[in-house]
């Protein structure tokens, strides 16, 4: 692995030197590939196009991110920004690389969560869009266009993660392949219309199984928090270390979103039936609502309070998109029959 890591560092150096003028573009792309974007950006846009596809996006995002957390704990992947210093292989010749505000994630590096969740979630989007285009046009070429964009997006997200020193190339490739497989498998098993008990049980099961895995690894003498210490040690700026990139933030986000999805379908089974114009209005209002929910500052001490509020934040997300905003739009735009 040492040789693979070393080549990955020199690849990142070359990439930064050749494309540093596109720094802002890479940072935007890495934000688009953030698993959080699947919940706050892709989910509402997809839901108001197709309710089933929207539910599938939230479902696939939560399960794929949870699996990514489990894989990371089991695989102990390094990250470039700390491996450069820890390896002690570059004492005589330091690579000419720099870190960015999105570099210093605290979880292990393998596989890439950005690549894995992006591949899984956007497979749902492009397959739904491809089917829609084919049903309307019967053009194979036109319906294949979303799949081409899918490949371009995966490549772009992968390059952005290498560029900012968050991942090695092999971690991006493994994440993309794993996410692609998960997207195909999970999109065919969407829990649309399932009872609230299913989502409550599933959310609790994910939470408890992860805590048990964490406790079990610690009992075996495995330091599950090893990556957090390295991230703090080698990050260029302490303020770039954020609690919302910690492994347990991913867990609480996934469990909260799944419980929220169950609650939303319980409050309003099937969602609200809206024409295209009210749907567009609902999308705009939902996006603004989610933007402000995401920006709500949470206390980082004690960590348990942060994780609890982070959980609640993502329970709220499906309520805004599926129940509250479409319900208000329906109330104000629906014309009663005489």
From TrEMBL:
Gene3D superfamilies: Phosphatidic acid phosphatase type 2/haloperoxidase. InterPro entries: Glucose-6-phosphatase, PAP2/HPO, PAP2/HPO_sf. Keywords: Endoplasmic reticulum, Gluconeogenesis, Hydrolase, Membrane, Transmembrane, Transmembrane helix. GO terms for biological process: gluconeogenesis; glucose 6-phosphate metabolic process. One of its GO terms (cellular component) is endoplasmic reticulum membrane. It is a multi-pass membrane protein. Pathway: Carbohydrate biosynthesis; gluconeogenesis. GO terms for molecular function: glucose-6-phosphatase activity. Belongs to the glucose-6-phosphatase family. This is Glucose-6-phosphatase 3. It comes from Cottoperca gobio. The lineage of its organism: Eukaryota, Metazoa, Chordata, Craniata, Vertebrata. The gene is g6pc3.
